[in-house]
Design brief:
Blueprint lengths: L9 E6 L2 E5 L8 E3 L13 H22 L8 E11 L5 E12 L1 H4 L4 H7 L5 H6 L5 E7 L5 E3 L2
Parallel strand pairs: 5-6
Antiparallel strand pairs: 1-2, 2-3, 4-5, 6-7
Length: 153
């Protein structure tokens, strides 16, 4: 990221409703995005799915960083993000809500920082904090092993 907090990606039209997204990091492969039928051919995720992925990823990384501050244990968070698409008053499709569930491993549940991090991590997630200003985002955290709810919306 540049010193002023900006970064750039490139989006190139391929065919139909397929687009290639090129990121500003050379080590990151391009991503093909597409719309579902009847517009596209589902050759990649559409923008709503990428938004859900961005929110889920950001929350996962934020929680991991708060709990571990270093190398997190592999496989310690599994996140599910559900997106509800609704029609607005004009009949246009919009992302109406996101529901995110982070399922954490026993190693993270046993962290002495858990209680504090459950109160903090959402606020440090750049994407979720931004998106939630316009779209309701419900976040839950559960113990992967027992299913016990550690944080609910």
């Amino acid at each position: 990221m540049a010193d002023d907090g900006r970064f750039s990606i490139e989006v190139e039209h391929l065919q139909g409703y397929e687009f290639k997204v090129r990121f500003d990091w050379d080590s990151v492969p391009d991503v093909v995005m597409d719309e579902p039928p009847p517009l596209g051919n589902r050759q990649g995720p559409n923008a709503s799915r990428m938004l859900a992925a961005a929110v889920g990823n950001c929350l996962s990384a934020s929680l991991l960083y708060c709990l571990t501050k270093s190398e997190p244990p592999a496989g310690s968070v599994k996140t599910s993000a559900s997106c509800q698409v609704v029609r607005n008053a004009s009949g246009r499709l919009r992302v109406g809500a996101l529901d995110v569930v982070l399922s954490v491993s026993a190693e993270l549940v046993d962290s002495p920082r858990l209680t504090r991090c459950l109160d903090l991590f959402e606020d440090f997630c750049v994407v979720t904090a931004s998106v939630s200003e316009g779209i309701p985002v419900k976040v839950s955290v559960v113990d992967e092993k027992t299913g016990r709810i550690l944080k609910s919306p």
